[in-house]
């Protein structure tokens, strides 16, 4: 994906929490991250300076995708599970051994509150994840003070110090009933799910009683506990103990296009997201049903125990056809995940439309602006020329074609200059213009609406002289005027060589710059190829016994100096070259580098 395409996608990112997935040029996932604000976070990778490992990551990024979540907590959960599944190389290097911690109430006779980094199907109750171990430890210690469970090992013979401090429920001192444990676990669950009003009121009452009793140290401890609740404890999502594998399908329909999002849930968390965008010719519900049937025909898509779909989809028919449960949830966590899939499908379609609109502005919109600036009705086709040589040697020209603001690479043309010796900008322009448009005349092909010369008045006058005086053609010609950085800043156009200023923020300005950069790149690349071949050919010409036919055979067969150096004597003789001449070639070229070390690789613009 080009830098321009990446910037277009960055501009469309939402100000919402979610996960971002970075991929390389082979479409492999190389990094997964989360953000409270996707737009700000993802932009920072491309618009900020980096160093070290982050710089290596940024250099490997080719394109990216995002998954929007409802809360930052959900983005954290999603990030963890995506990292576990895909093990991206940069996540492994940067986060290995530092998975986010959870608080766990164990499933046993005398349960404990522990910190763990793994979630298992063991009947325990999990809370989190927490951003780091310190946060989990602080919360664990706070809960042990106000809602203690068993803190010590079971092999204690008598009550421990923690029991006497009120930080252990005391199962070593006396039998604790299941009802008492259940009540305590219920209080902990309520607290970790954000229901903190009762405990705050209780702590305030204890603080005031301690202060009235002049026990200021204890009052300060209660005060600190209240502050902890107010500043640190956030609503935690209790991990579902429903480990049913399920897939979630949702859609959004607009302007004849259907956007489908698929979330694959395993152990109650999203492990993968798939998406599809295509024109819709039936009702969206029927199209979705057809998509689901085709989805599970792929051997890589294993049928889960349950499929969630939006309202309106025929769940009975789908369930019978698939042989699994198909359900439309109306409330609870299942409905929440379905709504999340709908949100993502809507965002994906909105992004598509906005990218199309931005593309139109950069192409059709830019052409309209340029047409207005030059006073031309509509510029459908632009042909642009550039020349390249080094101190007048190996002169070449190149032409690029843009139609409706987009490059047409199949119509690009290269020209070796035949009638001009040395660096002669005027004569070189005339030769190329003559060759191009006399051929179009002979073949009866369409002429461009505008010719852009990558040069000033000299090239414009040379082109007009050939077009008008020799060929009788009336094609507008404009010259691209450069700034100190060799970037187009304005155009020369019209009979009096008027300077046409373009707004630097306009799409027309950016289009002309893109054309100037493209034709320059194309010309320079061609010049390097010609220079390399001519250098090779000139070296061959200096070898006794190598004539034009032998030189042509060698050039066609080996193409580069590296290949000729690696060729054996038998390879040369196989071309019909006498052994004596073949030995001379190996002797003369075997130690010569393909490019002379003192040759400068810079192009003087003609």
UniProtKB/TrEMBL annotation:
Domain UvrC family homology region profile as annotated: residue spans: 248-467
Residue ranges constituting the UVR domain according to the UniProt record: 197-232
Pfam families: GIY-YIG, HHH_5, UVR, UvrC_RNaseH, UvrC_RNaseH_dom
Primary location: cytoplasm
Single GO cellular component term: excinuclease repair complex
Protein origin, superkingdom: Bacteria
One GO molecular-function entry: excinuclease ABC activity
Domain GIY-YIG residue range list: 15-92
SMART domains recorded: GIYc (SM00465)
Subcellular localization(s) per the UniProt record: Cytoplasm
Tagged with keyword DNA repair: yes
Keywords recorded for this protein, A-Z: Cytoplasm, DNA damage, DNA excision, DNA repair, Excision nuclease, SOS response
GO biological process: nucleotide-excision repair; SOS response
Function: The UvrABC repair system catalyzes the recognition and processing of DNA lesions. UvrC both incises the 5' and 3' sides of the lesion. The N-terminal half is responsible for the 3' incision and the C-terminal half is responsible for the 5' incision.
Quaternary organization: Interacts with UvrB in an incision complex.
Similarity comment: Belongs to the UvrC family.
Full protein name: UvrABC system protein C
